[in-house]
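Chapter review: from sequence to fold.
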Amino acid sequence: MPHIPTLEQARDLLKQYNQEPHLLKHAETVSGTMGYFAKKHDPENEAFWRVVGMLHDIDFEQFPEAHCVKGIELLREHDVDESVIRSAISHGWGLTGSPYEPEAFMEKVIYAVDELTGLIGATALMRPSKSCMDLELSSVKKKFKDKKFAAGCSRDVIRQGAEMMGWELDQLIEETIMAMREVEENAV
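The C-alpha coordinate string follows.
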Protein backbone atom coordinates (compact mmCIF):
# COMPACT_ATOMS: atom_id res chain seq x y z
CA MET A 1 0.00 0.00 0.00
CA PRO A 2 1.47 3.40 -0.96
CA HIS A 3 2.87 5.34 1.98
CA ILE A 4 4.80 8.46 2.87
CA PRO A 5 8.10 7.28 4.34
CA THR A 6 9.61 8.76 7.44
CA LEU A 7 12.80 10.75 6.97
CA GLU A 8 14.85 7.78 8.24
CA GLN A 9 13.06 5.41 5.84
CA ALA A 10 13.67 7.88 2.99
CA ARG A 11 17.36 8.08 3.89
CA ASP A 12 17.64 4.27 3.93
CA LEU A 13 15.84 4.03 0.58
CA LEU A 14 18.14 6.65 -0.95
CA LYS A 15 21.19 4.67 0.23
CA GLN A 16 19.94 1.56 -1.58
CA TYR A 17 20.65 3.38 -4.86
CA ASN A 18 23.32 5.94 -3.91
CA GLN A 19 26.66 5.42 -2.15
CA GLU A 20 28.68 8.42 -3.38
CA PRO A 21 29.35 10.65 -0.33
CA HIS A 22 28.80 13.88 -2.28
CA LEU A 23 25.38 12.69 -3.48
CA LEU A 24 24.36 11.65 0.03
CA LYS A 25 25.52 15.01 1.37
CA HIS A 26 23.58 16.81 -1.37
CA ALA A 27 20.43 14.88 -0.41
CA GLU A 28 20.90 15.83 3.25
CA THR A 29 21.47 19.47 2.27
CA VAL A 30 18.38 19.65 0.06
CA SER A 31 16.30 17.83 2.68
CA GLY A 32 17.43 20.24 5.41
CA THR A 33 16.91 23.23 3.14
CA MET A 34 13.40 22.03 2.35
CA GLY A 35 12.77 21.66 6.08
CA TYR A 36 13.86 25.25 6.65
CA PHE A 37 11.47 26.53 3.97
CA ALA A 38 8.66 24.32 5.31
CA LYS A 39 9.02 25.79 8.81
CA LYS A 40 8.34 29.22 7.32
CA HIS A 41 5.71 28.38 4.71
CA ASP A 42 4.04 25.05 5.58
CA PRO A 43 5.06 24.05 9.14
CA GLU A 44 2.50 21.29 9.55
CA ASN A 45 4.06 19.46 6.57
CA GLU A 46 7.74 19.89 7.40
CA ALA A 47 8.38 16.13 7.53
CA PHE A 48 6.88 15.71 4.05
CA TRP A 49 9.08 18.50 2.62
CA ARG A 50 12.19 16.90 4.16
CA VAL A 51 11.34 13.47 2.72
CA VAL A 52 10.84 14.97 -0.75
CA GLY A 53 14.24 16.65 -0.47
CA MET A 54 15.87 13.41 0.64
CA LEU A 55 14.45 11.36 -2.25
CA HIS A 56 14.66 13.86 -5.11
CA ASP A 57 17.84 12.34 -6.65
CA ILE A 58 17.18 8.68 -5.83
CA ASP A 59 18.04 7.58 -9.36
CA PHE A 60 20.93 9.95 -10.05
CA GLU A 61 23.93 7.75 -9.24
CA GLN A 62 22.83 4.53 -10.93
CA PHE A 63 20.69 5.95 -13.74
CA PRO A 64 22.03 9.42 -14.64
CA GLU A 65 20.79 9.11 -18.23
CA ALA A 66 17.26 8.40 -16.95
CA HIS A 67 17.28 10.84 -14.02
CA CYS A 68 13.76 11.74 -12.87
CA VAL A 69 12.32 9.04 -15.12
CA LYS A 70 13.78 5.96 -13.44
CA GLY A 71 13.12 7.62 -10.07
CA ILE A 72 9.37 7.34 -10.62
CA GLU A 73 9.74 3.60 -11.20
CA LEU A 74 12.04 3.07 -8.19
CA LEU A 75 9.79 4.98 -5.83
CA ARG A 76 6.68 3.14 -7.06
CA GLU A 77 8.46 -0.21 -6.59
CA HIS A 78 8.89 0.77 -2.93
CA ASP A 79 5.21 1.79 -2.61
CA VAL A 80 6.05 5.45 -2.02
CA ASP A 81 2.95 7.63 -2.18
CA GLU A 82 2.35 9.45 -5.48
CA SER A 83 2.37 12.81 -3.69
CA VAL A 84 6.02 12.26 -2.72
CA ILE A 85 6.91 10.96 -6.18
CA ARG A 86 5.33 13.91 -7.98
CA SER A 87 6.90 16.48 -5.67
CA ALA A 88 10.38 14.91 -5.70
CA ILE A 89 10.51 14.33 -9.44
CA SER A 90 9.15 17.81 -10.30
CA HIS A 91 12.63 19.23 -9.58
CA GLY A 92 13.78 17.88 -12.96
CA TRP A 93 11.03 19.48 -15.03
CA GLY A 94 12.38 20.85 -18.30
CA LEU A 95 15.82 19.34 -17.64
CA THR A 96 15.60 15.58 -17.36
CA GLY A 97 12.40 14.27 -18.85
CA SER A 98 10.41 14.68 -15.65
CA PRO A 99 6.71 14.66 -16.58
CA TYR A 100 5.80 16.81 -13.56
CA GLU A 101 5.80 20.58 -13.82
CA PRO A 102 6.23 22.24 -10.42
CA GLU A 103 2.78 23.45 -9.35
CA ALA A 104 2.60 23.48 -5.56
CA PHE A 105 4.76 26.06 -3.77
CA MET A 106 6.86 23.25 -2.29
CA GLU A 107 7.57 21.87 -5.77
CA LYS A 108 8.67 25.31 -6.92
CA VAL A 109 11.00 25.53 -3.92
CA ILE A 110 12.71 22.20 -4.63
CA TYR A 111 12.98 23.09 -8.31
CA ALA A 112 14.89 26.27 -7.40
CA VAL A 113 16.93 25.14 -4.40
CA ASP A 114 18.21 21.87 -5.86
CA GLU A 115 20.41 23.85 -8.26
CA LEU A 116 20.98 26.76 -5.88
CA THR A 117 22.27 24.63 -2.99
CA GLY A 118 24.96 23.34 -5.36
CA LEU A 119 26.03 26.85 -6.30
CA ILE A 120 26.00 28.08 -2.71
CA GLY A 121 27.88 25.00 -1.51
CA ALA A 122 30.56 25.48 -4.17
CA THR A 123 30.85 29.17 -3.26
CA ALA A 124 31.26 28.30 0.41
CA LEU A 125 34.05 25.84 -0.40
CA MET A 126 36.04 28.68 -2.00
CA ARG A 127 36.08 30.59 1.29
CA PRO A 128 38.81 30.13 3.90
CA SER A 129 36.16 28.87 6.35
CA LYS A 130 34.70 26.43 3.78
CA SER A 131 31.40 27.26 5.46
CA CYS A 132 28.05 28.91 4.79
CA MET A 133 28.14 30.45 8.26
CA ASP A 134 30.04 33.53 7.07
CA LEU A 135 28.81 33.47 3.46
CA GLU A 136 27.10 36.62 2.22
CA LEU A 137 24.63 37.26 -0.58
CA SER A 138 27.17 39.39 -2.49
CA SER A 139 29.63 36.48 -2.71
CA VAL A 140 27.01 34.15 -4.14
CA LYS A 141 25.78 36.78 -6.59
CA LYS A 142 29.33 37.30 -7.84
CA LYS A 143 29.74 33.54 -8.45
CA PHE A 144 26.23 33.37 -9.95
CA LYS A 145 27.38 35.78 -12.68
CA ASP A 146 30.49 33.68 -13.45
CA LYS A 147 29.10 31.05 -15.85
CA LYS A 148 32.27 28.95 -15.60
CA PHE A 149 32.02 28.63 -11.81
CA ALA A 150 29.95 25.58 -10.79
CA ALA A 151 28.91 25.33 -14.42
CA GLY A 152 26.67 22.34 -13.70
CA CYS A 153 24.34 24.52 -11.62
CA SER A 154 21.76 25.98 -13.99
CA ARG A 155 21.35 29.69 -13.44
CA ASP A 156 18.30 29.61 -15.70
CA VAL A 157 16.58 27.07 -13.44
CA ILE A 158 17.44 29.12 -10.34
CA ARG A 159 16.02 32.28 -11.95
CA GLN A 160 12.96 30.46 -13.24
CA GLY A 161 12.42 28.88 -9.81
CA ALA A 162 12.50 32.29 -8.14
CA GLU A 163 9.98 33.57 -10.69
CA MET A 164 7.72 30.56 -10.13
CA MET A 165 7.82 31.26 -6.39
CA GLY A 166 7.03 34.94 -6.98
CA TRP A 167 10.32 35.94 -5.35
CA GLU A 168 13.20 38.16 -6.34
CA LEU A 169 16.41 36.24 -7.02
CA ASP A 170 18.19 37.96 -4.12
CA GLN A 171 15.47 36.84 -1.70
CA LEU A 172 15.76 33.23 -2.87
CA ILE A 173 19.56 33.25 -2.54
CA GLU A 174 19.48 34.93 0.88
CA GLU A 175 16.86 32.52 2.26
CA THR A 176 18.73 29.51 0.86
CA ILE A 177 21.98 30.70 2.47
CA MET A 178 20.10 30.95 5.79
CA ALA A 179 18.67 27.46 5.26
CA MET A 180 22.11 26.04 4.53
CA ARG A 181 23.50 27.70 7.65
CA GLU A 182 20.84 25.90 9.67
CA VAL A 183 21.70 22.61 7.94
CA GLU A 184 25.37 23.17 8.72
CA GLU A 185 24.64 24.00 12.38
CA ASN A 186 22.54 20.85 12.78
CA ALA A 187 25.20 18.66 11.14
CA VAL A 188 27.82 19.57 13.73
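Two observations follow directly from the output. The two ends are 37 Å apart (CA to CA). The chain has a mean pLDDT of 96.
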